[in-house]
Task: structure prediction
Amino acid sequence: MSVLDELYRETLMRHYKHPHHYGELEGATLEVQGDNPSCGDRVRLMLRLEGDRVAEVRFVGQGCAISTASASMMTDVLQGKTVSEALRLARQFKAVVVDGTPPAAELGELGALAGVHKLPARVKCATLVWNALEEALSAR
Ligand code: ZN
Result:
């Protein structure tokens, strides 16, 4: 395993063991549930929008390391973003894990999930919470 792979693995496990922004969100304006039956991942994403901006985002659920870390890292990058910025991040992240596009700097620690595109069975784990995000934002 390369040093970079190890670093990525450490980042992933850190978010899995201690997910950021985990728990119920009081006053959520959007809420959506996502399921990935192929792995057993379940996530409920809650957002509080102020105008066009993501003021707060939290999630709860049960999932594997990849789905949990993806949700945790996503909540880190979404805080304060506009809806269109959030949707752009979703497209960028999916291009990384689905097509193997190199991660842009603005994805932050989410770049640690870049290797997922080599594991087709796990792509849905990584994209679960992002699909939930797109569903929530398009339903508003
Ligand atoms: Zn999974």
Remarks:
- Residues 36, 39, 41, 63-64, 66-67, 125 surround zinc ion (CB under 6 Å).
- Strands lie at 30-36, 41-50, 53-62.
- The mean pLDDT is 95.
